[in-house]
Design brief:
The chain has 407 residues and is mostly beta strands. The protein has 3 helices and 26 strands. A hairpin with a 2-residue loop joins strand 11 and strand 12. The longest helix is centred in the N-terminal third of the chain and has 16 residues. The radius of gyration is 47 Å and the shape is rod-shaped.
């Protein structure tokens, strides 16, 4: 490197004349003030002289060329861009006036160096990004060794959480101005084997045969696919949960599942099985989510939703913490009318076989008297009839089932 007044440090010796010493000191001070600025190369032996010996760049020496600031560090230096032990390790990130400027200066970047592309130009502000240089093999105009640190790697190296947020209070992904039909994030082909859903996709939002699909896992694994059918019959249009084949429907677990209040309309929905619904059940074991209708007292807290529907219509339980469910043991249901009130329970149950109650007996007694008319003599005449009865036996055909109520 050529000696100049901005890149050379020379300590005067005892034999240096006053004028020469003054010139050397002035040059050294200029070199320190300008961080050994040079557009050619960093300081070498001839630029750093002490006691008449060429020392070269010492650890800690700062050098500035036309592009960036470097420090001499024999311990942390990697494959240096400018020569010697000069590196940008530990100095910090750089900034370029947009991606075009970064590409033009790519040759001046070291492996591991960060650079932001932030521009004050109005049209470039929205394109501000942060890049990491991953090698020293780039050339001017070549961006192959730069990666956008805001985009996860695509080489399958993600094995732990890359994006996490324990307190999401605002939108993290704003798609209000994005046409999701044009957004397709998949690692395979656009359409699956069935032509309706993406293949090998982790998350896919896009147009696949006119449908918008969100695929979880792969169509060809044990996972399921969530698809939105834009066209089709009433039963098939809308949201579909498919199994790994993409053809069969998969089970759905949810807190509450609703459907249209009136079939064929789409402006209002209601639970498919409202709390308090009573159905007939054909197994000895009552399914989860239901209670058998046998008059039991149950907790008003545990079954708060059911209590809100029934109240104490079928019994107040202990009067404070419980209430009764309907009792259908040995009874049939009767529609509410002017003769039947809601919650009314008849006194009779089927006791044995198909009989209600006991037996019935009817006795008939008559009283007759002789009546004489027109001298023809007397003849018997019915004067009164009395009937007495006891209990009744009524036979009813039935099939035994359990009545259960939705909790």
């Amino acid at each position: 490197m050529a000696i100049s007044t901005s890149n050379t440090f020379i300590e005067p010796t005892a034999g240096t004349s006053l004028n020469a010493a003054r010139s050397q000191i002035n040059s050294s001070l200029r070199a320190l003030l300008s961080n050994f600025y040079s557009t050619n190369a960093p300081p070498v032996g001839v630029n750093i002289v002490a006691s008449g010996a060429q020392l070269g760049a010492q650890n800690g020496l700062v050098y500035h060329n036309a592009n960036a600031l470097y420090v001499s560090d024999s311990v942390n230096v990697k494959a240096t861009r400018v020569g010697g032990n000069f590196t940008r390790a530990g100095i910090g990130s750089r900034n370029e006036n947009g991606i075009v400027a970064l590409a033009a200066n790519a040759l001046s970047y070291e492996n591991g160096e960060l650079v932001s592309t932030i521009s004050e130009a109005g049209g470039l502000k929205a394109n501000a990004r942060l890049y990491l240089c991953t090698g020293n093999s780039v050339s001017a105009g070549n961006m192959t060794d730069f990666i956008d640190v805001g985009v996860p790697p695509t080489n399958g190296s993600i094995v732990t959480t890359m994006v996490a947020d324990d307190a999401i209070t605002n939108a993290k992904i704003n798609a209000s101005t994005v046409n999701l039909d044009n957004l397709l994030l998949i690692d395979g082909t656009k359409a699956g084997a069935d032509g309706n859903a993406p293949a090998n996709a982790q998350i896919a939002l896009g147009t696949t045969s006119g449908n918008t699909a969100l695929s979880l896992g792969s169509l060809h694994s044990s996972n399921v696919t969530l698809k939105h059918q834009r066209a089709g019959t009433v039963e098939n249009a809308g949201l579909s949960i498919m199994d790994n084949t993409g053809v069969k429907f998969a089970p759905v677990a949810a807190n509450l599942v609703c459907q249209s209040t009136i079939t064929g309309t789409d402006t209002a929905v209601a639970p498919i099985v409202p709390c308090g619904s009573i159905i007939m059940w054909t197994n000895a074991t009552v399914p989860d989510g239901f209670l058998e209708c046998k008059g039991d007292a149950v907790s008003r807290t545990t079954y708060a939703a059911l209590f809100a529907v029934l109240g104490t219509t079928y019994g107040a339980g202990n009067g404070s913490s419980t209430f009764n469910v309907p009792d259908f043991q040995g009874r049939h249901a009767a529609g509410v009318s002017s003769n039947v009130t809601l919650g009314e329970i008849s006194g009779q149950q089927i006791t044995s076989g198909n009989a209600y109650g006991g037996s019935v007996s009817i006795s008939l007694s008559t009283v007759t008297r002789n009546v004489a008319t027109l001298g023809l003599g007397g003849f018997p005449m019915l004067e009164s009839v009395s009937v007495s009865s006891s209990s009744a036996t009524v036979n009813a055909a039935f099939v035994g089932v359990k009545y259960i109520i939705k909790t």
